[in-house]
Amino acid sequence: MSLVKYEILDKVARLNSFTKAAEILGLTQSAISHAISSLEKDYGFALVHRNKHGVTLTDEGVIMLTAIRNVLHAEEMLKQEAAKIIGVTKGKVRIGTFSSISTKMMPKIIQLMDRQYPGIEIELREGDYFEIEQWLKEGEIDCGFLNKTHTKQTQFTPLLQDELFCIVSSKSTLFNKESVDLNEIETEPFILTTYNGPNDVLAIFERYRINPTIRFKLFDEKGVISMVEHNLGITILPQLVIDQLPKNVRKLKIKQESFRTIGLATKLQMSPAAEKFVEVLMHWLSTNEIVHKV
């Protein structure tokens, strides 16, 4: 019964709602409330705050949830190891990803996983670098795509180099150039893609001591490209996020070495299902020229 309570607390924490957790788990809201209250009684302190805006964890609840997720992960590992012994590959792999990986890589990799290992369920969770690393540290995912990692609790494997390009409109003084020097970027308004975690473009600026005039900061790359299309500035974007550009917009190679490294961060002890995902991912990368491999 404790594992069921743990799963309930985990789901409530993810959704910040008793009602949504009950719907997904196929339980009544009173059953969810009873399970949480039972855990709180067992531990002797409150795990959640209940208010009109939803449910949030107490400080003690946050601490306990990390340990509880470790227990749930260990239980999933046991199931997968047992299935492995009898020759059946099954289980769940929870993967942290970001938009360009979700668009360019994951559909084909999931197709391969479905074909080769139909017993493995893939769960995707999309966020930025910071969120993905936090999810991995807190046990919410099994592996995640990152540009680097800051914790010794995970193993980071570089996978590919995604070249950065300068994106300009026809009104830019750089439009007719074949390539651009980063120093030239200082002469025009710059639109920065911003997110939590290490910013690849800012890292390039710091490396080459470039001080751009940042006019706007946006999270969505499509919004950034739209700003460039309307002649509001220039930007730098990685190849994986550049699809079809508007007619009055083009990409320019950057003379200085400019790329982001994308890798996969995994738990130090991976489940059999996660190991199969990594195998399929690495094989797919070895046979596809999506970008430069590390």
Number of helices: 10
Radius of gyration: 23 Å
Give the integer mean of the pLDDT values.
88
Number of strands: 13
Helix content: 40-55%
SSE sequence, one letter per element? HHHEEHEHHEHEEEEHEHEEEHE
Distance between the termini: 46 Å
- Helix-and-strand structural type: alpha/beta
Q: What would the principal axes of the Cα set say about the shape?
A: globular
Strand content: 25-35%
Largest sheet: 9 strands, mixed
Low-confidence stretches: none
Highlighted features:
single chain, 294 residues, alpha/beta, nine-stranded mixed β-sheet, two-stranded antiparallel ribbon, 10 helices, 42% helix, 26% strand, globular
List the helices and strands and how they pair.
Blueprint: H1 2-15, H2 18-25, H3 29-43, E1 48-51, E2 54-57, H4 59-85, E3 91-97, H5 99-104, H6 106-116, E4 120-126, H7 129-137, E5 143-146, E6 154-169, E7 179-180, E8 189-193, H8 200-207, E9 213-218, H9 221-229, E10 235-238, E11 249-254, E12 259-267, H10 272-287, E13 292-293
Describe this structure in words.
By secondary structure, this protein is an alpha/beta fold. Helix content is 42%, strand content 26%. The strands form 3 sheets. Strands 3, 4, 5, 6, 7, 10, 11, 12 and 13 form a 9-stranded mixed beta sheet that branches. It is globular and about 70 Å long. 31% of the residues are buried.
